[in-house]
Structure formats: C-alpha cells, structure tokens
Amino acid sequence: MDSPIGEGQGVLAGFCGILATDCSIFPIHFEKWPDLPVTIFNRCYDRFIKPRFCFRTIESNARRYVYNSMCKKWGAKRLKLFDKVYDPLKSRAEIMDSVPLEIPPDQWISFVDYRFREKTQEICKRNAEIRKKQIVSHIGSSKPNSRRRAEMPGRGQFYLATHRNEDGSYVNEAAKEICEKIELALSQSTVDESEISPNDAVGKVPGKEYS
Prior knowledge:
Elements: H1 7-20, H2 38-49, H3 59-85, H4 92-97, H5 105-115, H6 118-133, H7 145-151, H8 155-161, H9 173-188, H10 201-204
Helix pairs in contact: 1-3
InterPro entries: Probable_transposase_24
Pfam family, one: Transposase_24
Region (Disordered): 189-211
C-alpha cells in the first residue's frame, strides 16, 4: 500500500513534523520545497526515518509518503512563522529584524525578502481568494484521511463523517445539501459501497469532481 494505516501513522506524521520544521535540517529560505536539494531529504530519511520505522510497502512508496508529508509540514511552518511576525504597519527591514529565536538570521532575512517580492504577494493573494471560494469545507481533525477511510465502509460514510461537526450539525448549508443526498443514495444503494466506483453514493451525488 502507498500510505501507512494504523496507530503508527500518527507517530510517523508527528515525527515528520518535528524533522521538517527543524531549520537546521531543512532551511526555510528556499522558495519552494522542491528547490531543496534532494540529498537533504535523503540524508534525513536515511538517518532518522529508516532506522525507526518499518513500512509495509516498497521503499520508494515509503520515501514518497514521507517526502510529501514533510513538504506540507515545512510549508505550513513557514506560513505560520511569517504570519506570527507580519505587521502591515512594519517595513520589510523591521520584519527582517524580528528574527524568531529558533531561526538563523541569514535564513530569516532571505525568507522575508522572498515573502515581500511582488510575485510572491500576488500568489499569496490568489491562494487566499481561492480558499474563500471553497464552498464546502470539511472537518477532518488530526486523524489522517487514509486511516479514516480504512475505518469506514466506503466513501459515502467517509464524506458524511468529515462534513459534520462534533455535535452532528453540518459544516455549512452546501455540505448539508450534499450529505442529505448521499444519505438517501446510501439507503437506496445496490452496490458494494466499500468499493470505490462511479456508481457508489459519492460518485452519483456530488458528481465526477468528487469521485
């Protein structure tokens, strides 16, 4: 399988987060995660991941899973770092002087310079607008989706579980409308819902974009 499932996945994800957010291992001043030399990741994987985790898959799949996990956590860390110190009333130089304790000054200066570039600001603005247009949000908690899917009999139940709040209410009206249709489709289903198919509840109701 391509991604680990079970209790060990939470441990792995947490450990990946610790490594990915350590700027002594993965510097923050590279513009994008793919810009980091792959030798940095390979050295980290071989030194810290491989001796501690046993994957029930081929090594290339395990490396790809860890690589993608670290990519997300590295990006999230950088975003959080900048949001924490950013002040629209401060100049670029003033923000450069606000070096977080755990970040080397040279990395921070390069990172802030990147964030203040016109192209970067345009990308950030566009991404923010895209997030605003996402009508149907979901509640995923900290449990990995691969583990959630493994615990639920089909995509329909998975969709319902991730689009409701803890009190049973829906995350928004758009999600409520879709979930009610999925519940109806599940009650009338004549196929094996544990198998992903265009004819399962999710494939029929929201449409191909959710399949």
